[in-house]
Specification:
The complex is a heterodimer of chains A (108) and B (122).
Chain A (H helix, E strand, L loop, with lengths): L8 E4 L5 E6 L9 E5 L6 E4 L13 E6 L2 E6 L8 E9 L4 E4 L3 E5 L1
Parallel strand pairs in A: 1-9
Antiparallel strand pairs in A: 2-6, 3-4, 3-7, 5-6, 7-8, 7-9
Chain B lengths: L2 E5 L2 E3 L5 E8 L8 E6 L5 E7 L6 E3 L7 E6 L4 E6 L8 E8 L9 E4 L3 E5 L2
Classes of the chains: A mainly beta (108), B mainly beta (122).
């Protein structure tokens, strides 16, 4: 089945830009969604269909998707952005929803 | 306000069964597809199962196929997961999650419950 690969961790200083990648075979042809999960809480959708933001999600969160890599970008990172982030697609070959392994974002 | 509230978790022995429920409110339940997603302690998210708004379409992760059954009762605004032949590796928090659209499977999951913990242990 389809495999999504994320770096286990990303660290960034406050006020800087964090980029979290999600690799997959021709993922640019897929619809990628991103979720944020803080400790002890349920996941929250932060980006859908590659680059759309749900209402209530700050404009600092953006997404892109091309080739074999989708990217979640968080600009002007704040301490409150520290969380695990997961990418997700629908794998039509198996009729499965697939998550990446998750990336822990640490704000230094 | 959209709300999803899971219940039914607990401790069960290997080989045992458990039925999870998810009570929904704040949206037209029968128009939306739903999912179960689980998270083992200290691990990432794992999609478990999907059911379409009319129950006609259901899908399962390979790890649970043949053991778990997803269902819904649109009259009661409720989603269920019947879990049989439980294994140690099924230990996880189980989340109920709504699809943003009932019209396509490529849509994201836009609302999640707070989860219910299932522990499989002897």
């Amino acid at each position: 089945s389809y495999v999504l690969t994320q770096p286990p961790s990303v660290s960034v200083a406050p006020g800087k830009t964090a980029r979290i990648t999600c690799g997959g075979n021709k993922i640019g042809s897929e619809n990628v969604h991103w979720y944020q999960q803080k400790p002890g809480q349920a996941p929250v959708l932060v980006i859908y269909f590659d680059s759309d933001r749900p209402s209530g999600i700050p404009e600092r969160f953006s997404g892109s998707n091309s080739g074999n890599t989708a990217t979640l970008t968080i600009s002007r990172v704040e301490a409150g952005d520290e969380a695990d982030y997961y990418c997700q697609v629908w794998d039509s070959s198996s009729d499965h929803r697939v998550f990446g392994g998750g990336t822990k974002l640490t704000v230094l | 306000e959209v709300q999803l509230v899971e219940s039914g978790g607990g401790v069960v022995q290997p080989g045992g069964s458990l039925r999870l429920s998810c009570a929904a409110s704040g949206f037209p339940f029968s128009s939306y597809s739903l999912n179960w997603v689980r998270q083992a302690p200290g691990k990432g998210l794992e999609w478990v199962s999907y059911i379409g708004y009319s129950s006609r379409a259901v899908h399962y992760a390979d790890s649970v196929k043949g053991r778990f059954t997803i269902s819904r009762d649109n009259a009661k605004n409720s989603l269920y997961l019947q879990m049989n032949s439980l294994r140690d590796e099924d230990t996880a928090v189980y989340y109920c999650a709504r699809d943003r659209s009932g019209a396509t499977v490529v849509t994201p999951m836009d609302y999640w419950g707070q989860g219910t913990l299932v522990t499989v242990s002897s």
